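Justification of computing resources. Each target in the renewal requires a structure prediction run like the one illustrated here; the chain below, 280 residues long, is used simply to show the kind of job we budget for.
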Amino acid sequence: MILNRLQQSLNNLSKAERRIAEAILKDPATVVHMTTAELARAADVSDPMVSRLCRTVGCRSFPDLKVQLASSMASGNSYISSTVSAGDSSEEIAHKIIGANMNGLEYLRSGLDLQAIDKAIEIIRDAKRIEIFGMGGCASIAADAQNRFFRSGIPTVCYEDTLKQRMAAASATEGTAVLIITFTGRTKDMIETAEIVKRAGGDLIAITATDSPIAKLADVAISSASELEDTTIYVPMVTRIVILTIIDILTTGLALQMGPDIETRLQLIKHSLDLTKVAK
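Resulting structure tokens:
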């Protein structure tokens, strides 16, 4: 655990690194919600020194360290969120949830696999159709992805029913881009569906845990950042925000690659709704 690593490394750190480590150990719950600059000020060191300490103790970045801190402190007794505690006021809940989401997006920015993003956009751009699968908590995310991707002009469907997913997977021939969205990548039905896609010859993109069976099956795997919270216990909050942001990145990147024609299509789609609204 990160707290143990920090404690055990104190005697081997430089003076500046030690001040940072001691500030973290003194109040880890507060540090989880700090920015790099805030922690640097609290420890009276430069901002780059915070990043240096993170690497020294085996973390990729400060957001990564904060994720490990939050995991270390989670009690595991709440099925709501690892961020909040019983008795928190509305102000504390808002501060903690917003802070956790901000940390999640910082974590995504520092660790996003841009090569995987580029490859996924390329597959989708060249696809004849897009099929999106999501189950449980990922079903609504998959529906949102369908709402974004169909605007590209590429036929796009979304399935949350397991049997429909399997049938669609079996028809996923060359030119079909299948996007599977799953927090853990370990749901048996979804693993079997991914295997069917591969046997049928479709291109498989997965937004999921990078060490999962589905990630290993995928042509392109993009991390869902499921390590930010235990989605087998807690209601997914931060992970959901991260995945929605990844979808925004993919759809925006796709639109930019499709050239000026997409602008005309998006304008027509937008104007098709004009008569559905009352005047201001």
